[in-house]
Design a protein that fits this description.
Rossmann fold, disordered C terminus, about 40% helix, elongated, about 15% strand, disordered N terminus, seven-stranded mixed sheet, alpha/beta, single chain, about 375 residues
Length: about 375
C-alpha cells in the first residue's frame, strides 16, 4: 500500500500509539476512550456541519455505545491495529454515546452526513441503530454477543447484507466450569437485563450447560435502573453465587453489584475482566483489546478490497471478487483469548481463595491510588 505524508486526523480523540505495549498500553488507551464519554455531549454543535474529506483517504466512524471499559478496550485495540496496518491512509473518528438510543442515532447520523466509508459499532445497541440507519455503508460490529439477534445478519457463515464483525461470546462450556468452581455447590442466581436480547441469548446457553451439570439455579431479570437494585437484593439473599452474562446495563452499574453482594456475602461471577475489576469476585471472558484488533483485520479487508478507493487491490480472479464484502465475511469469535480472573479485594472480603486457575487482577485502591494484586 502506498504511503501518504498527510497526518492522521482523529476527529474526536487521539490515542497515543507508542511502544509502551502490554496491559499499561491497553489501560491508557481505554481510559482515554472512556473519558470521551463526558466531552462528547458537551462538544456537540446545535447544527451539525459535515466534515470535509480528502478523496485519497479512508474514513472510519467508531460509535462506542457507552463509556464502560470493555467497549473502550475494544475501540482502543481497533484503532491501534488499523492505524498500524493503514498508516496515514485512514482517518478515524471515535464518538462515545451515553448508552441511549437517541445519542447513538445522533452519532450515526453524523457519520452518514460525513459520508464515512465504514462504521465500527461497539455494542449491540450501536450495531442495531447503525443497521437501522443505513443499508449501504459497511458496518463492522464488535463486543456483540449474537449478531442475528442484534440485526442485519441472516447467518453467521454468510451475513448477507452490510453487517459483519466479531462476537464476544466466550467458550460457554469452559465458562460454566469456572462458574461451578466459584459456586462450590451453592445456588446460582442468573441476573440480567430483560431488555438486552444478547444477554438472554447467553443466559439460555448457560442454563443448558447448568442443566447438564445438575446445578441448582434461578433466573432474575430486571428492566432498567429502577428495579436493578431490588432484583440484586433478592438474588443475593436467595443465592450463594450470582452469574452475570455480557450485559451492558450490569457492566455500567457494577458499583451497585459490588455494594449489595458484599453486604449479603454473595459471590459474583461475571463474563468479562472489567466487570470483575469493578466489583465481581471472578470472571471468565474474552480479551476485548484483542477483539478490537481482530475486528480491525475485518475493517482492513473491507476498506482495501471492497471499497478500494485507489483501485490497487482490484482483481479479475473470481475467487477474490467477494473479498472484503461484509455480506460474505463470516462472523468470527475470539475463543482463544478467553481467560479466568479474580478480584483480590473482593476475595479477601469474602474469605475466598483461588485454586490457582484464576489470575489475580491489579486493582487500584480508591484511597491511595495504588494498585494491589494477590500473590
Amino acid at each position: 500500500m502506498r504511503k501518504r505524508l498527510a497526518a492522521i486526523v482523529l476527529c474526536c480523540v487521539v490515542l497515543a500509539l507508542t511502544a509502551c505495549g502490554g496491559k499499561d498500553k491497553k489501560k491508557s488507551e481505554a481510559a482515554e476512550n472512556a473519558a470521551t464519554a463526558e466531552t462528547a455531549q458537551e462538544s456537540a454543535p446545535a447544527k451539525y456541519t459535515p466534515a470535509v474529506h480528502d478523496d485519497d483517504k479512508y474514513y472510519v466512524g467508531i460509535i462506542q455505545q457507552s463509556g464502560h471499559e470493555a467497549l473502550s478496550l475494544t475501540a482502543a485495540g481497533f484503532i491501534s491495529a488499523l492505524t498500524d496496518m493503514m498508516g496515514d491512509e485512514v482517518v478515524i473518528d471515535l464518538k462515545v454515546a451515553d448508552g441511549s438510543v437517541g445519542d447513538c442515532d445522533l452519532i450515526i447520523d453524523h457519520f452518514l452526513q460525513d459520508k464515512d466509508d465504514l462504521i465500527l459499532a461497539c455494542g449491540t445497541m450501536a450495531l442495531r441503530q447503525s443497521y437501522a440507519a443505513t443499508k449501504d455503508v459497511p458496518i463492522i460490529g464488535a463486543a456483540v454477543t449474537d449478531f442475528i439477534i442484534a440485526g442485519g445478519v441472516s447467518s453467521v457463515g454468510e451475513p448477507g447484507e452490510n453487517v459483519t464483525g466479531i462476537s464476544d461470546l466466550p467458550p460457554m462450556q469452559s465458562q460454566r466450569d469456572y462458574l461451578l468452581q466459584v459456586s462450590s455447590g451453592s445456588r446460582i442466581g442468573i441476573v440480567y437485563c430483560s431488555e438486552e436480547a444478547n444477554s438472554e441469548f447467553q443466559v439460555r446457553i448457560m442454563e443448558k450447560y447448568l442443566d447438564d451439570s445438575d446445578a441448582e439455579y434461578e433466573a432474575y431479570t430486571f428492566t432498567g435502573t429502577n428495579d436493578l437494585e431490588a432484583v440484586l437484593e433478592k438474588a443475593c439473599k436467595e443465592c450463594g453465587t450470582l452469574y452475570l452474562p455480557n450485559d451492558n446495563m450490569l457492566a455500567s452499574h457494577m458499583d451497585a453489584v459490588k455494594r449489595i453482594s458484599l453486604k449479603e456475602g454473595t459471590k459474583v461471577f461475571a463474563s468479562d475482566e472489567s466487570m470483575c475489576k469493578n466489583g465481581a469476585l471472578a470472571a471468565y471472558g474474552v480479551d476485548y483489546y484483542e477483539l478490537g484488533k481482530r475486528t480491525a483485520d475485518v475493517a482492513y479487508e473491507t476498506l482495501e478490497y471492497y471499497i478500494d478507493k485507489f483501485g490497487e487491490n482490484s482483481s479479475d480472479d473470481e475467487e477474490d471478487e467477494d473479498r472484503g464484502d461484509p455480506a460474505k465475511i463470516s462472523i468470527d469469535r475470539v475463543r482463544d483469548t478467553a481467560g479466568a480472573y479474580y478480584n483480590p479485594e473482593i476475595a479477601e472480603a469474602l474469605g475466598w481463595s483461588s485454586d490457582g486457575s484464576f489470575t489475580a487482577l491489579e486493582i487500584e485502591s480508591a484511597e491511595s491510588g495504588s494498585t494491589e494484586a494477590a500473590e
